[in-house]
Amino acid sequence: MVNLTIDGRAIQAKKGCTILDAAREHGIYIPTLCYHQALKPIGACRICVVEVKPGPPRPLPACATYVAEGQEVVTSSPKLDAIRLELMKLVLINHALDCPICDKGGECELQDLTHALGVSVVDLEAVKLPPHKDYVSELIERHPDRCVTCGRCVRICRDRVGALAINFTLRGYFTELASGGLPLDCEFCGSCIDICPVGALINKVFKYRARAWEVTRTEMVCPFCGGGCSYELWTKNDRPLRVVNYDTALLCGRGRFGFPVVESPDRLKTPLIRENGGFREASWDEALDQVAAKFKEITEAAGSAAIYGVGSPRATNEANYLFQKFFRTGLGTHQLDNPGRYTYVQALKGLAAVFGFPQVSGVEKVAKPPLPFHSPLTTTEEAKASGFPLVLGKLKDLPKADVALVVGADVTPELPPLGWALNTALERDTFHLVVANNRKTKFDRRAHLSLRYKPGSERLLIAGIIKSLLTAQPEWAPTVIAGGFDEFKENINKVNLKDVAKKTGVPEALIKETAARLAQAQAPAIIFGSELMGQDKGLENTLALADLFLLVGRPGAPGSALYPVAEKNNTRGVCEVGVMPEFLPGFVPLEGAEPGPTLPEMLDLLEKGDPKAPQALYLLGGDLLRQLPNRSRVEKLLKKVPFMVVQDAFLTDTAKLAQVILPVAVHAEQEGTFISTDGSLGLLPRALPVNGVRPDWQIISQIGSKMGFAMSYASPKQIFAELALGMPRWAGMAPKNGGAAFTAEVTGQFVPFETDISLPGRRPFTLLVGKSLQHSGSFTTHEPCGTLTITNRARLGLNPADAQNLGLAEGDFAKVTSSQGEISVPVTLTPELPEGLVFLPEHFSQPAAQRLTLNSNLVRVTIQKG
Amino acid sequence: MDQERLDTILSRYEGDAADLIPVLQDIQDQYSYLPKDELKVVAQKLNVPLTRIFSVATFYKMFSLIPKGRHQIRVCLGTTCHLRGGPRLMESFSHRLGVEPGYTTKDMQFSLETVGCLGSCAQAPVAMIDDKYFGRLATDKVPKILKLYKN
After folding, report:
1. Chain A residue numbers touching B44 (CB-CB < 8 A)
2. How far is A165 from chain B (nearest CA, A)?
3. Distance between CA atoms of A849 and A771, rounded to whole angstroms?
4. A800 is a domain residue
5. Most exposed residue of A30, A172, A478, B12, measured as fewest CB within 10 angstroms of its CB?
6. HEC states along A210-224?
7. Which site among B39, B52, B56, B58 would you substitute to test the A interface, given the most A Cβ atoms closer than 10 Å to its Cβ?
């Protein structure tokens, strides 16, 4: 700690913090303009100047001056006030002063400063500059005449988002924020809007809809990807108007502009019951009675195992917990799974095989009743934990890693917060980024090593890296205590590096260099995404990475961990609360009972017409037809099911096959929690009216009660309390936090993995079905979602050279054929894709990408014009 | 867009982001300005965001986003030249050519601009046409000099 005085007050501050930090911490006001807590200070505006003794005989910027022992700081004096006043006059010299129609009015930092510093008159004059206003760009409007050139938008765009879509042009008095005189063509995350202290950047979705002081603000977790960002939702007259993240200003496009989807006219409003080939609207009582009666009838006729449930990575922990309780306790079966089976669950299974299942000890109940959505458990001093969840990293620790290996993940579309964390890490010169992907992704530009492998060859590449590491350093011992190393080494010895280089397309030297960097790393992080998990051999891919982590990972070092991307808001939560046949809540393996079939196994049963095949399906949201590979097969099989109940907010293609559809609440219409990709708890409070629909937990509880199960709950708070009581690893868990720290005991077992990378078929192109930057599942594909203005339909990404050979130009329709089906889709020329690889986003139902796939997100296809 | 001409320039460099300014200088020399379409290609080849290129291109006075004339006239208005009659010299050029500083004559022969210092204060007032210095320049010499460059 450092002792100093600010305005005569003795203050203790942390070493390495700035005068501004110290002052703010103690409630001392220092005006600022270019400073933002989420960015590195640049000391450009000089509004925050203070007098420092001992120090140079001139005022210093508080935001960029570090505290020192014995410092005497004065934050306000006639001299400082005069400097600030003069600076403010210069800032205001050409300011538009159109506050009455400026959206920022009421929360404008310049307004507040002008008021706070008492600037009553600007007695300076300068040439008027022509304002290059931009009303053309999508979602974002630009008013350079309101700009104070603080550079906050430039810095957030460059240092955090990594897009550098806006930058200073010209210089001196003429400096202007611009994008080269062109409309914005960027990621449309809108982070620049919320970091702008004035109204130079305006959110078009929110423009003219309310003033800042009229709205109700509710803090909540974002409901799109697994990032678990929290933001404030602004509502007025029960309508959602805007979302803002005040901590870091960072949100992605779907988070910031996607929320209007809640008000979509496509939303289902009443329960629907199938009748005479169509649907008719029904009352809640009728629909729920029918579901309960039909479920009862089926269980009586065919046994309770005849009902199969599919949970949802979109629904809250509470809903998913009740859902598994409905099956396990109510029906007494384990016939349930979640669609993450095809991606994230494959990774979890791989990690569990290598690092073991979670074991927790030293947890006790808290003495007094916990707050709502706080775990009723707490850790004791002897609290210990082991198992795979301990090697799953936290995003806030990632910047502390010194090497990050990104494999099979286009980071920003998959999980924007992961991209921000990587950009933060890249600010340190000692951080090394290795990006391995089958195509050029955003982070290739900043990567120290960029490995381009052939689609689907990830596990062979990892085998090559391991082989190269063990060849270069034959005495290498795994950095994590692990068994089975000798056997594993023998297996790896069979790998031929030349062969790997040939099959993966990655030069041998790059593989060796990657291995060398990982070997030197003191805190390596391994990041992988659904591109790699979503292959049919996703489990093998994860095993390869987990084995690599046993070799080089240092779980004790902050940031050194595995970072599998959980695709949706609650992909991790749905698994943690036990919506899987083989795991009870908390990843406790099911013992003493036969686990039901997994989702793919259930489909196989249906295909075979097995007597064990379900008679009824209960789907908790999730458009299976759109999500699962081989759409025609899934469609055929789902049609075979005599009775299907779907809880969803939209009439999805899957819902259209159901007998009863129950409309559910989404986003802030319901209360509940999500578990983000890094295991922290996101709280969703209620901020919007439900308008006739019901939250998932309530529907499950009502069906359960009607069937005679003891499942009556008053609120999600009550469900959470019950759920968290059974989850020792959640001890200390509270909103926006990942629970208490345990003494970690990370050990593992090397598991051999398969290195065969052949992709069946002889068609010339490989299609990768993946994620688009502007969409999350199919949730964001309904009007009036803001991001639809950027990406309104699926387009087939194609290398320009391939396109030329095929005679295709931008926007032309291409016929894409695989062994499974055929679709027609417009092409977009994408130089980032290597020749022979084509890319199709998975979000849209027209054309449906999964019509082409077989059992993986990779499939061989032929492409023709027309 | 003349792809070949641009490729010749780009082929001289390794495609590193650090090559940005030399590449822009070459384009400026060859084209007399920085055409937008060419800059888009440069952005892709050097892996530099387009906005950074515009930022650099508008910051340095040696770059221009609009076509310049065949000959560049730079009149020094540094302190010494300013005191020795630089502004009058400027006015004379401007008057003779019929353009304001920062602009190009209609026939695209001359571009006129002011500069901060040409580093030849002993010769003040100084002007520079293309690569050639003209020192101790009195206004009455201006027509004669311009004649040298008018075809």
Report:
1. 831
2. 6
3. 11
4. yes
5. A172
6. CCHHHCEEEEEECCC
7. B58
| Confidence check: pLDDT of A656 > 80 | yes
For residue A446, the chain B residues in CB contact (below 8 A) are: none
Is pLDDT of B136 > 90?
Answer: yes
Rounded CA gap, A695 and A716, in Å? 10
Across the range A96-106, mean pLDDT stands at 92
Q: Is the dihedral of CA A147, A149, A153, A157 positive or negative?
A: positive
CB contact under 8 A, B51 and A831: no
Residues A814 and A694 in one domain: no
How many domains does the structure of chain A reveal? 5
Q: Quote the radius of gyration of chain B (alpha carbons, Å).
A: 17
- At the second CATH level, the architecture of B3-59 is Orthogonal Bundle (1.10)
Q: A-chain residues within 8 Å CB-CB of B51?
A: 164-167, 178-180
> Measured between CB atoms, does A128 come within 8 Å of chain B?
no
Strand pairing report for A481-483 and A524-528: unpaired
Q: Could you please state the CATH topology (level 3) that the domain comprising B71-149 is classified under.
A: Glutaredoxin (3.40.30)
CB contact under 8 A, B55 and A169: yes
Chain B interface, best mutation among A156, A168, A184, by max B CB count within 10 A: A168
**Residue B3 touches chain A, beta carbons under 8 Å:** no
**Residue A361 touches partner B, C-beta closer than 8 Å:** no
Mean pLDDT (chain A) is 94
Report yes or no: A726 and A585 within 8 Å, Cβ to Cβ.
Answer: yes
Query: Is residue A85 in some structural domain?
Result: yes
Query: Structure tokens of A285?
Result: 């009582």
Residues A177 and A224 in one domain: yes
**Residue A318 and residue A439 in one domain:** no
A351 shares its domain with A469: no
A418 with A545, same domain?
Answer: yes
Pairwise CA distance, residues A457 & A436, whole Å: 11
Residue B151 has pLDDT above 80, yes or no: no
Shortest Cα distance from B15 to chain A (angstroms)?
A: 12
Within 8 A of B52 by CB-CB distance, chain A residues are 164, 167
Last-in-domain residue among A215, A244, A263 = A263
The model's pLDDT over A539-589, given as tens digits with 9 standing for 90+, comes to 999 999 999 999 999 998 999 999 999 999 999 999 999 999 999 999 999
What CATH number did the domain enclosing A63 receive?
3.10.20.740
User: Within this chain, do residues A618 and A498 fall inside the same structural domain, yes or no?
Assistant: no
In a domain, A638, yes or no: yes
